[in-house]
Amino acid sequence: MPPRSTRPTDNLDDDDYPAYTMGRAAEMLSTSPAFLRALGENRLITPLRSEGGHRRYSRYQLRIAARARELVDQGTKIEDACRIVILEDQLEEARRINEELRAARAR
């Protein structure tokens, strides 16, 4: 796979760059690595792997994980929280596409 950028600082603004280790991601979310593994098992987020096989998370994935954590903290089962977050994401994407289509039709 070719490098995504030419300068090391180019990745700092990339929401999809896998910059965070599992330990750091868990710390940032005030949760455990087991919680992050459970999100992966429920197919909410799929971390990339470093050359050594360690999980690496992006800022986008951490935002998704934080939303799931909010739902779990409110008493939602983790499986259900993952499904809710997936549906919320799909709804947001459908709304974005709908708005683009409306704007194109208005032109």
From TrEMBL:
Any GO MF annotation of the entry: DNA binding
Superkingdom, natural source: Bacteria
GO BP term, pick one: regulation of DNA-templated transcription
PROSITE patterns: HTH_MERR_2 (PS50937)
Pfam families attached to this UniProt entry: MerR_1 (PF13411)
Domain HTH merR-type stretches: 19-87
Signal peptide (UniProt feature, chain positions): none
Protein name as annotated: MerR family transcriptional regulator
Record organism: Streptomyces nanshensis
